[in-house]
Design brief:
The chain has 331 residues and is α/β, with parallel strands linked by helices. It has helices at 27-36, 55-59, 81-93, 108-112, 123-136, 155-164, 187-196, 210-220, 229-233, 237-246, 254-267, 274-288, 293-303, 310-320; strands spanning 15-18, 41-43, 47-48, 72-77, 99-103, 141-148, 170-176, 201-204, 224-227. The longest helix is centred in the C-terminal third of the chain and has 15 residues, at 274-288. 43% of the residues are buried.
């Protein structure tokens, strides 16, 4: 019997992936999450492949051992089949174990250049781009897609084009490009994709706690879970999901949270100035504070802080976020 593409662990926990996130999902964040643990695989933020791309130079951004032993898939984005194929080959030579094609980025700048979610307006082009990558490499190729551009009228056509291209599985974020992140993710479309396709489907969108994860699995039948913003809001969510399936309890304490932020600061690029390091922590904290009403009240104070020294800023943040110690922010 062949090995499942998205294997469950020994306790029946589904395959868990850390989502690609432009901006916050940088190497420092992935390394920090690898130190926390709980997930099976991560995906890089997209590597843009423009019409004039020099793929050898662009591919140097990918480091296959960045979070070893956890595998790191390389996500690429573009609309030229030949260049995308060449990028796939270059990344495979650099040790990538999987290539993921971005068919979901909602950025207007990206879309105007013919990449990201704009591919969902043309299933034929989507097929050509993805199939070119599949033919060019011997490693698995997948796609991450939204449910459509302006609407879902081409949803099933895009699913068919993607499946026909030869990919191993689809990760579906069930919002359209026009939805952005405003409307609730339509999990019913994940269920529809799972019923329609013969290849596996990974569900993504609006997983913020263990109950959400279990509900998505039950309501959609998806084969795995990919979590992005929910992990920034609760960096211990993967561990909590895995603990649920093992029958054990995992409840982070104040020291876990402090360790998480200290590791993040230590993993930031060496060439960042102290002020830039503070701003990177603020970027992460801005999303983390969405995890509770208490923290939302603290967010303006944290983001307005004028500290330029990372240690001083972190001491200030510890005072503001001392909610784990008092038992707040518990799910």
């Amino acid at each position: 019997m062949s090995k499942p593409v998205l294997p469950k662990d020994g306790n029946g926990c589904p395959y868990l992936q850390l989502a690609p996130m432009e901006g916050v999902g940088d190497p420092a964040f992935r390394k920090t999450m690898a130190a926390v643990g709980g997930f099976d695989e991560a995906v890089t933020a997209f590597i843009r492949v423009p019409e004039n791309a020099h793929v050898q130079s662009l591919a140097k951004r990918y480091q296959s051992n960045e979070i070893a032993p956890i595998p790191l898939a390389a996500q690429i984005m573009g609309s030229d089949p030949d260049l995308m194929a060449a990028m796939g080959q270059e990344l495979a030579q650099r040790g990538a174990l999987r290539i993921d094609v971005n068919c979901g980025c909602p950025s207007n700048i990206v879309n105007r250049r013919g990449a990201g979610s704009v591919l969902l307006k043309n299933p034929d082009l989507l097929f050509k781009v993805v199939n070119a990558v599949v033919k060019a490499v011997a490693i698995p190729v997948t796609i991450k897609m939204r449910s459509g551009f302006d609407d879902t009228s081409l949803f099933f056509e895009n699913l068919s084009a993607a499946a026909a291209s030869g990919i191993q599985y689809i990760t579906l974020h069930p919002r359209t490009k026009s939805d952005g992140y405003r409307r609730p993710a339509r999990w019913d479309l994940i269920a529809a994709a799972k019923e329609f396709l013969k290849i596996p489907v990974v569900g993504n969108g609006d997983i913020r706690n263990v109950a959400d994860a279990l509900k998505m699995l039950q309501n959609t039948g998806c084969d795995g879970l990919m979590i992005g913003r929910g992990i920034v809001m609760n960096p211990f969510l993967f561990l909590q999901i895995r603990s649920h399936f093992s029958g054990t309890a995992f409840q982070p304490v104040w020291e876990d949270l402090i360790r998480y932020f200290r590791v993040y600061i230590s993993k930031l690029a060496d060439d960042l100035s102290p002020k830039q390091r503070v701003n990177k922590v603020k970027q992460l904290l801005a999303l983390y504070c969405n995890s509770s009403e208490h923290l939302l009240h603290k967010r303006p104070e944290i983001l307005a802080a004028q500290h330029t020294d990372p240690d001083e800023f972190f001491a200030f943040v510890q005072t503001c976020l001392n909610v784990y110690e008092s038992g707040a922010n518990r799910d």
